[in-house]
């Protein structure tokens, strides 16, 4: 029987097929394919996606600066030989980036048609200034930023394709955040965590569906958000701050100023999560007057199915609000209430709530 020459079918696959295979490997394993043959030496450097996580770095390496140096070795090889687009970059390895190196890498990515730019938790002494080139990415659909200073350049006209935005431990002023949200017409998901210097939040985006906000701020204002179906807000009051400006239009959920009516966008909500930080005595009366006012009798949350309320202390205001939700949410399927402090809620009150739910 004649010896048949073995055919290297994998190496001869089209690059788009090889790219799909390699991006499903941890980056460290993809880089190891360089030893297979001379054909494979630089294949991994041409990937369309780069995910730098703890799998890229040996587990024994704990020094954060050294971990960044390991990442830079990979980045330098990619920059020197990469051809074609880079659609996704994710930094999720706990390290301490050099700001100059980081800026150069981000600038490189923005020239490669980046679609997903994800920068997660890392160690920093001071926040890095987000390079203005990030705002020149017309294909960007997912943006997650951590530990940066966020300022919009004068030339910024918007992210037309951005669907998901997450900012964590970012320095951004209220006006800038409002402008950013308004200029992302395709935005569906918005997450804001531990934002610095945020006096108020104004949410106005006709395509927004999911909102999560966990930060220090004084006021939140909902403008026109007809598709909003899920809201998760944890508000930490900023005592001693003076709010310099409040939008004239929109509906606020506030510490002091209570609106005359609830925002109509709440009719679209299917899930609601509320986490209370603390309750102030001076807030009780205006909120109480609002909750039991005549204007709420004809207000219904017709799409609301799931409610989670955490951190209540058992005030009358809180219980009246819970009663309101039960009585005015005809599609409600479940409500979870977690009480952190104070005396237990009286059984008679719980029975009253149960009767409202069964109505």
Explained architecture:
It is elongated, with a radius of gyration of 26 Å. The strands form three sheets. The chain has an eleven-stranded parallel β-sheet, with no helix packed on it. Strands 9-11-13 form a three-stranded mixed β-sheet. 25% of the residues lie in helices and 21% in strands. With 359 residues, the protein is an alpha/beta fold.
Summarize the structure.
The protein has helices at residues 15-23, 27-32, 64-81, 99-110, 174-182, 281-291, 316-327, 347-358; strands at 49-52, 88-91, 116-119, 128-129, 142-146, 148-149, 164-168, 189-193, 200-203, 210-216, 219-222, 230-236, 251-254, 271-275, 306-312, 334-339.
Number of E strands: 16
Q: How is the largest sheet built, in terms of strand order? A: 1-2-3-5-7-8-10-12-14-15-16
Helical content (DSSP H or I, runs of 4+): 10-25%
Structural class: alpha/beta
Query: What is the average per-residue confidence, as pLDDT, rounded to a whole number?
Result: 79
Q: Give the CA-based shape.
A: elongated
Give the SSE string. Answer: HHEHEHEEEEEHEEEEEEEHEHEH
Q: Please report the number of helical segments.
A: 8
Largest sheet: 11 strands, parallel
Poorly predicted spans: 242-250
Compute the separation of the termini in Å. Answer: 83 Å
Strand content: 15-25%
Based on CA atoms alone, the radius of gyration comes out at: 26 Å
Domain F-box/LRR-repeat protein 15/At3g58940/PEG3-like LRR: 103-231
Domain FBD: 301-337
Protein name: F-box domain-containing protein
Domain F-box: 10-46
Highlighted features:
F-box domain-containing protein, single chain, about 350 residues, eleven-stranded parallel sheet, alpha/beta, elongated, three-stranded mixed sheet, LRR_dom_sf, about 20% strand, F-box-like_dom_sf, 16 strands, LRR_FXL15/At3g58940/PEG3-like
């Amino acid at each position: 029987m004649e010896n048949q020459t073995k055919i290297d079918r994998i190496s001869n696959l089209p690059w788009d097929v090889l790219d799909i295979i390699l991006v499903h490997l941890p980056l460290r394993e993809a880089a190891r394919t360089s030893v297979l043959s001379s054909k494979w030496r630089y294949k991994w450097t041409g990937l369309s996606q780069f995910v730098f996580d703890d799998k890229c770095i040996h587990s024994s390496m704990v020094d954060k600066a050294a971990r960044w140096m390991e990442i830079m070795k990979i980045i330098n090889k990619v920059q020197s030989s990469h051809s074609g687009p880079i659609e996704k970059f994710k930094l999720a390895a706990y390290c301490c980036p050099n700001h100059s190196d980081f800026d150069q890498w981000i600038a490189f990515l923005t020239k490669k048609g980046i679609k997903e730019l994800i920068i997660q938790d890392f160690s920093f002494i001071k926040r890095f200034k987000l390079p203005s080139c990030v705002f020149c990415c017309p294909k960007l659909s997912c943006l997650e930023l951590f530990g940066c200073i966020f300022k919009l350049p004068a030339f910024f006209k918007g992210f037309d394709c951005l669907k998901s935005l997450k900012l964590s431990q970012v320095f951004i002023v209220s006006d800038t955040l409002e402008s950013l949200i308004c200029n992302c017409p395709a935005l569906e998901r918005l997450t804001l965590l531990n934002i610095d210097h945020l006096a108020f939040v104004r949410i106005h985006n006709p395509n927004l569906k999911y909102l999560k906000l966990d930060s220090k701020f004084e006021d939140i204002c909902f403008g026109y958000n007809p598709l909003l179906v899920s809201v998760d807000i944890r508000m930490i009051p900023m005592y001693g701050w003076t709010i310099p400006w409040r939008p004239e239009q929109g509906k606020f959920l506030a510490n002091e100023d209570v609106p005359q009516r609830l925002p109509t966008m709440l009719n679209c909500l299917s899930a609601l999560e509320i986490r209370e930080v603390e309750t102030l005595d001076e807030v009780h009366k205006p909120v109480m007057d609002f909750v039991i006012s005549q204007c709420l009798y004809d207000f219904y949350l017709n799409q609301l199915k799931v409610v989670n309320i955490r951190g209540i202390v058992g005030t009358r205001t809180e219980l009246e609000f819970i009663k309101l939700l039960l009585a005015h949410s005809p599609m409600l399927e479940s409500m979870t209430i977690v009480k952190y402090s104070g005396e237990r809620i009286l059984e008679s009150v719980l029975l009253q709530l149960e009767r409202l739910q069964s109505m």
